[in-house]
């Protein structure tokens, strides 16, 4: 998984047109992730971000008008990177079916969260600082899961009566397994955690009838 | 479900010894839930809380030393009320088995969240204002779910290899189904949402083999 490539799509008001500009924007966003992740939105400062990014203050304002704006751009950037990281993990594999897809999507997310622990704090703080981005992150994530569930229904592997609520249930499992096993402790490896979720989606939690 | 009874256990430093004192404490906590829920921690004020509770400022300081302290007490109070509300819903029913218990626990939680929509914002803000309470809320909730899963294993209904991670997965499903269907919209009734979760726990999401 590469974490140094620029986020897809424009962030902030001013989209860089050169490779050098894209690198500077990336440095600012990476620095903002550390600054907001460590200090929280209210204590974080633009000076703190440019200090970490080793850029001039004027450079910051080439890309963003305010602390609010880079925070909003960062939430979009993290949301995009979760999507592209999970997407890359799924396209890189032979098609093992719908359940295997969900298992692999969760494992990729858990690894990403473990390597970018600040993501929880930043997305969670968006509920207060930028509610529209918070909602959009979860709505778009649930939509992608639901599309995969519908594909699994069409292929015959999954039930055909799965609803949007099933996607929200799966997303919730994933988010809380990440909180517990990627952020708060890493006592279980990502693959083992993802296997727990897969086993629930495969057979539920009831004892198999013999 | 009664919401006017005092929370179990002491909240704040000063536990009221009289019924009148308990009622005043309850009024302050209910007012705090509205104040913090509407304004968020930073914008909320002690004056705003006592104004809503129609109590004197001096009365506030009989029970709490600061805004931080009543916020912490409120998180504990909400966590306790979720527990007692779910507990009451479970004891009030004939034992329909482990899956029915999880379904009913979720339905009771969804109804509580729908009637106290501020709970999400307050518990979520605890991640920033009072991280220990935030963590304790989820750890104790997961522990209760895990104990129910173990009881279901002993009774023969559930798999006996269920781990703590299964409880976190179930809690995550419940939290996100609540966010989507009790807070953001109520387009699906609580019973129907709880049935989605029950069906996942019963058979997973795969197509039944015919």
Q: Secondary structure elements and their pairing?
A:
The structure is a homodimer of 210-residue chains.
Chain A: H1 19-43, H2 46-53, H3 57-63, H4 67-91, H5 98-115, H6 118-129, H7 131-154, H8 164-184, H9 190-203
Helix pairs in contact in A: 1-2, 1-4, 1-6, 4-5, 4-6, 4-7, 5-7, 5-8, 5-9, 6-7, 7-8, 8-9
Please give a structural write-up.
2 copies of one chain form a homodimer. The longest helix of chain A has 25 residues, at 19-43. Chain A contains 9 helices and no strands. Chain A has a domain at 67-203: Tetracycline Repressor, domain 2, CATH 1.10.357. In chain A, helix 1 crosses helix 4 (67-91). Chain A is 73% helix and 0% strand. The model of chain A is unreliable at 1-10 (pLDDT under 50). Chain A is an all-alpha fold. Chain A has helices at residues 19-43, 46-53, 57-63, 67-91, 98-115, 118-129, 131-154, 164-184, 190-203. Chain A is elongated and about 65 Å long. The interface between A and B is large, with 50 and 50 residues.
């Amino acid at each position: 998984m590469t974490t140094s490539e620029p986020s897809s799509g424009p962030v902030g008001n001013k989209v860089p047109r050169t490779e050098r500009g894209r690198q500077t924007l990336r440095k600012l966003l990476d620095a903002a992730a550390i600054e907001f992740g460590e200090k929280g939105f209210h204590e974080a400062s633009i000076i703190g971000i440019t200090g970490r990014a080793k850029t001039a203050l004027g450079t910051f304002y080439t890309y963003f008008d305010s602390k609010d704006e880079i925070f909003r751009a960062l939430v979009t950037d993290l949301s995009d990177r979760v999507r592209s990281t999970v997407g890359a993990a799924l396209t890189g594999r032979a098609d093992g079916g719908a359940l295997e897809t969900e298992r692999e999507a969760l494992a990729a997310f858990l690894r990403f969260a473990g390597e970018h622990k600040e993501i929880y704090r930043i997305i969670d703080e968006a509920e207060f600082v930028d509610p529209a981005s918070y909602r959009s992150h979860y709505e778009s994530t649930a939509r992608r899961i639901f599309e995969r569930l519908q594909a699994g229904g069409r292929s015959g592997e999954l039930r055909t009566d799965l609803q949007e609520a099933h996607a929200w249930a799966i997303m919730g499992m994933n988010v809380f397994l990440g909180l517990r096993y990627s952020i708060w402790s890493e006592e279980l490896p990502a693959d083992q955690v993802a296997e727990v979720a897969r086993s629930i989606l495969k057979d539920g939690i009831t004892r198999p009838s013999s």
